């Protein structure tokens, strides 16, 4: 168990090693080299649903996350077009960002393309269909029953349905 003073010290040390997002996107900022030794350190601790027992934390390393992003970006799987002055992919996101699928697919993967993500607080069929139409959704990630549902297949601006 950590004492409060140790916890504050760890937080302070972590904050000193962080890079402000504004500095990160500023092309004139000198960014230190990436610490490749940290690739096997835990980066994310999502919890399993407990399908085979009690829910448990699943330690994912930086390498795990980057490998998954590379898999998701492979041309045989992902046909997304990077955002430009004339076009931006738009996807709906029902799963919460703390869920591993929501985190990797609906947040990190699509961010690499500049995709607009329309979050939906809960899945309700009528709400989902209205979001598809109202926000000109161009692609969806869905389980087969939803991905091939008649109400979705006919929405004409959807270019890709990933099931």
In short:
This protein is α/β, with parallel strands linked by helices. The chain has helices at 4-16, 21-25, 62-73, 100-111, 125-134, 144-147, 150-153, and strands at 42-44, 60-61, 90-93, 116-119, 139-141, 160-162. Strands 1-2 form a two-stranded antiparallel sheet.
State the main characteristics.
7 helices; disordered N terminus; 163 residues; 12% strand; two-stranded antiparallel sheet; two-stranded parallel sheet; alpha/beta
What structural class results from the helix and strand content? alpha/beta
Q: Major beta sheet, specifics?
A: 2 strands, antiparallel
Shape annotation: globular
Order of helices and strands: HHEEHEHEHEHHE
Number of helices: 7
Supply Rg: 19 Å
Average pLDDT taken over every residue: 79
Strand content: 5-15%
> What's the count of strands?
6
N-to-C CA distance: 44 Å
Low-pLDDT regions = 1-5
Largest sheet, order of strands side by side? Answer: 1-2
Domain AMP-dependent synthetase/ligase: 37-146
Subcellular location: Peroxisome
InterPro entries: AMP-binding_CS (IPR020845), AMP-dep_synth/lig_dom (IPR000873)
Pfam family, one: AMP-binding
What is the secondary structure topology, with strand pairs?
Elements: H1 4-16, H2 21-25, E1 42-44, E2 60-61, H3 62-73, E3 90-93, H4 100-111, E4 116-119, H5 125-134, E5 139-141, H6 144-147, H7 150-153, E6 160-162
Parallel strand pairs: 3-4, 5-6
Antiparallel strand pairs: 1-2
Helix pairs in contact: 3-4
Characterise this structure.
The longest helix has 13 residues, at 4-16. The protein has helices spanning 4-16, 21-25, 62-73, 100-111, 125-134, 144-147, 150-153; strands at 42-44, 60-61, 90-93, 116-119, 139-141, 160-162. Helix 4 (100-111) links the parallel strand 3 (90-93) and strand 4 (116-119). The chain has seven helices and six strands; from the N terminus they run ααββαβαβαβααβ. The strands form three sheets. It has a two-stranded antiparallel sheet with strand order 1-2. The protein has a two-stranded parallel sheet with strand order 3-4. The protein has 163 residues and is α/β, with parallel strands linked by helices. The N and C termini lie far apart (44 Å).
């Amino acid at each position: 168990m950590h004492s409060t003073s140790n916890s504050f010290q760890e937080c302070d040390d972590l904050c000193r090693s962080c890079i402000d997002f504004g500095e990160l996107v500023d092309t004139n900022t000198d960014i230190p080299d990436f610490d490749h030794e940290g690739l096997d350190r835990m980066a994310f601790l999502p919890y399993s649903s407990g399908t085979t027992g009690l829910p448990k934390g699943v330690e994912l390393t930086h390498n795990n996350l980057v490998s998954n992003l590379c898999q998701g970006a492979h041309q045989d799987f992902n046909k997304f077009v990077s955002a430009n002055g004339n076009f931006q992919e738009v996807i709906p996101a029902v799963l919460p960002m703390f869920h591993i699928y929501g985190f990797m697919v609906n947040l990190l993967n699509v961010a690499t393309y500049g995709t607009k993500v329309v979050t939906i607080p809960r899945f309700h069929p009528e709400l989902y269909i209205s979001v598809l139409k109202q926000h000109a959704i161009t692609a969806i990630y869905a389980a087969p029953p939803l991905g091939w549902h008649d109400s979705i297949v006919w929405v004409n601006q959807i270019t890709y349905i990933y099931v």
